[in-house]
Design goal:
The structure is a single chain. This protein is 43% helix and 12% strand. It has 350 residues and is an alpha/beta fold. The protein has three domains: 4-67, 434 Repressor (Amino-terminal Domain) (Orthogonal Bundle); 92-213, Cobalt-precorrin-4 Transmethylase, domain 1 (3-Layer(aba) Sandwich); 249-340, Bovine Mitochondrial F1-atpase, Atp Synthase Beta Chain, Chain D, domain 3 (Bovine Mitochondrial F1-ATPase, ATP Synthase Beta Chain, Chain D, domain3), CATH 1.10.1140.10. The strands form three sheets. Strands 7-6-8-9-5-10-11 form a seven-stranded mixed sheet, sandwiched between helices. Strands 1-2 form a two-stranded antiparallel ribbon. The chain has a two-stranded antiparallel sheet with strand order 3-4. Helix 8 (147-157) runs parallel beside helix 10 and helix 12 packs across helix 15.
């Protein structure tokens, strides 16, 4: 089947307030968001939904749907991200989290890693007083205070330099981010990967807090409360990289099987907490324990947190992550205790 995906960049430019616009024509914002990130493949969408989006964007359906386009993945070597919601190069990434769930730590870690890959990191300073953002400063090459300055500094770098750009949601609400992306698009700069955070922690209560996204990282309050970092939800985070033929079939199969296991583990965990593991049938005990091992394996020590955790930061190549996750799902790690899998790199089996 021909590979199809929505032209998310066009939607961002033409329909800045997509949440309100979608509701006005009878579309559910969550459905539109899932189409943008690839959680719902374009090929499975109702024609009326695609037609309504094309009407909102004042474009043809052919302009709205990209055929045969491949969304390139940036391999972060962070297990949970690469497996469940890969970073789309040149796309817009939204972090959905309440304060204290680790979104700025993750942003710092990503910028640290991207700098090692010769990315130039740029931060648009937020309006208001947010002292916590200063923790990110040491991983920033350029701090800018306005959209005009951001455009000047980024465009001066040229098309041959990869840019990682971060901004607070306040600049999304004013339309500044749309303006910047439009200006950069007009001069053919497709090398800017944009990270959007919400320093106020309000985005968790909205359907499309940032508008259309290529990648959504939704933080999980339960994982954060149990210090399972990075606390990025494997069930609600997603990426357009996962859509259709963008992803290697082996990756997609393992990703889906891992989600299935973790979803069932979450259900069983609520039973175990209230009634005890002895109330589970033997087959479900095995599922529960494998889910517990997989959840532990997906934690990872970060380089930027070494002085606080005392644990050396680690990177894991995607191929290693896929191999390890398959082993855990298939039961080849059943002899290992979950605590021995927490905050490790690659799986080491005797």
């Amino acid at each position: 089947m021909e590979n199809l995906c929505l032209n998310v960049a066009l939607l961002r430019r033409k329909v800045p307030n997509l949440t309100t616009a979608a509701k006005s024509v009878g579309l559910r914002p969550a459905t539109v968001s899932n189409l943008c990130t690839g959680k719902i493949p374009v090929g499975r969408a109702e024609l009326r939904t695609i037609a309504a989006l094309a009407s909102l964007a004042e474009c043809t359906i052919d302009e709205l749907i990209l055929k045969g386009e491949k969304v390139e993945m940036i391999e972060t070597k962070i297990k949970a991200l690469d497996l469940f919601a890969p970073l789309a190069k040149g796309g817009t990434i939204g972090l959905v989290a309440r304060p204290g769930m680790g979104q700025l730590v993750l942003l710092s870690e990503l910028f640290f890693r991207l700098q090692k890959e010769d990315y130039t990191t740029v931060l648009l300073l937020p309006d208001g007083d947010y002292p916590e953002i200063e923790d990110v400063f040491q991983f920033i090459d350029m701090k800018v205070s306005s959209i005009k300055e951001a455009y000047e500094e980024i465009s001066a770098k040229g098309k041959d330099v990869n840019i990682a750009f971060a901004a607070d949601r306040s600049h999304v609400l004013t339309g500044d981010i749309i303006e910047l992306q439009t200006q950069l698009n007009n001069i053919g700069m497709n090398n800017v990967t944009t990270f959007l955070v919400d320093l106020k922690g309000e985005v968790v209560d909205e359907d499309m807090p940032y508008g259309p996204l290529e990648t959504l990282w939704h933080f999980d309050v339960d994982l954060a409360a149990r210090h399972k970092y990075p606390a990025v939800s494997p069930l609600y985070s997603t990426s357009s990289v996962l859509e259709g033929a963008h992803l290697d079939q082996n990756h997609l199969t393992i990703q889906q099987n891992a989600q299935k296991l973790l979803r069932r583990y979450r259900e069983l965990r609520s039973i175990v907490q209230t009634r005890g593991i002895e109330k589970l049938p033997d087959s479900e005990v095995q599922t529960y324990k494998r889910g517990e091992r997989l959840e532990a394996y997906l934690t990872q020590p970060f380089y930027v947190a070494e002085e606080f955790t005392g644990i050396k930061g680690l990177s894991v190549h995607l191929s290693e992550t896929l191999s390890d996750v398959r082993k855990i799902i298939d039961g080849k790690a059943d002899a290992m205790l979950p605590e021995h899998l927490a905050f490790i790199g690659q799986l080491e089996m005797n």
